[in-house]
User: What shape does this take?
Amino acid sequence: MSEKKSLKRKITTKSLEEKYKALNDIENGVAKKAEKEVATKYSIPLNTLSTWVKDNEKISSAFENGKSPKTMKLKGAGFDSLDKAIYKWFMNARERNVPVSGTLLKEKAVFFSKELQIENFKGSDGWLDRWKTRQSVTFKTVAGEAKSCTSEMTASWDETTLPTIISNYKLEDIFNADEFGLFYQALPNKTLHLKSEKCVDGKHSKTRLTGMAAANAVGEKLPMFVIGKSARPRCFAGVRNLPCRYRSQKKSWMDSALFEEWVTELDRKFVREGRKIALIVNNCPAHPHIEGLDTNQLVFLPPNMTSKTQPMDQGVIRSLKAHYRTLTVQLFIRAVDNGQPLPKISILSAMNMLTAAWDKVSEITVQNCFKRAGISKESQECAMNDSDDPFKELDEELDNLRERAQDHAPPEVTTETVIECDDELLTADTELTSDSDILAEFRPSDDELEEDDEVFIEEPPPKRPSKQDLCHAIDVLQTFSLFVRVDHDSFKTNIKNISRIVDRDRLVEKRQGLLTDYFSKTE
Assistant: This one.
């Protein structure tokens, strides 16, 4: 009599990348067959796939927002905060050139876990190994590489460093990045008040954003990067695709962890493109030296000289802000014309307008600003000559608003005051962060309201347009195409592409609904 052996399925944990790919396979497959085919492809049972489908938003958000593709489990908020706090402390220690051992890191993690009220945490060797993998950290002997590199590069910028960069890199591979502060909700009549204040220690952090503008010497612009205070703004609820990259920080500032994450992702991008680039940034604690980059050479500007040597400060950021303020003034004009209250600009609306404003900054403006900083084939000064003058357009829109509602744009409000109202905003820590500051950033606490009567209540999150809304929008574009004066053929082609994307998205939504219904019936 032969014994029947029960075959046990071998349980394997799948990575975040595998889960994300599986969910995409489901969306692109035929609803009735997709679940079985995907389950077979990834060697998982249907009930596991059902769980992934329920966690679709969480999985997609984690993968698309830069979490390590090798992550096996999405940990709870407590351990995630501890991971970030320890990483920030590690970056601070490295900036001070302090050697960090595994033992020291585990002791600091145990201390932070108690301060962050995280229970049942043990700073084991296993945790340390997993943390290093998640954060892509390797322990090496700390030499003076970052310090000596910085001092050598800044010893003689004009005579030595800059000519070396220009001779070793093509202009399209020389990039500059710089942060800027933005009072994203500021009305024109409040800009004088805001400009008169110094925003320090995170003051106004709920009504301001920090942006990162980055471009190369031929005018190629990298996507906008925005930093705000809130980790999960209400206006993001249900939104799958943000207009640009967004990260949160307690004071809405750039810090070393956010900077390293951004630079590392840029490095991967340029590896894929087969390019080696020089990235010029100012010299501050928020911009640490980063080891292990394959394509990015970080070049640090001389201290206290960024306004003269940094292309973004030669007019690129000023042009960007002019375009942004023009868009906000146009919003206010439409509200006044329609007899509506002044718009409540949310972070999401600000990101949309900031991305649109960044798109409006012309290649020639960027090129001219690089020339003024000495980065060009001619390496000579060149005045800005932008045919699409953003300052003139803003001036005209302020006049239009003044004619309709002078209270919102009094005579003393000029183009300069509107653009410069947030020039003095701090955008990064000027000193290395203490343990107490790190803990304060990640310690759970109730978000108190600012004692500031100028704080707007954010608008609710946007609703997904209905089928009828989308069809109407496409019809409006089709009608407009009958009157377009330039690029008519391109405009018609773009309408067709938009229509196809809308149809495909509707089909995916329908399949996803059928799939969810299927799993709810089989469970």
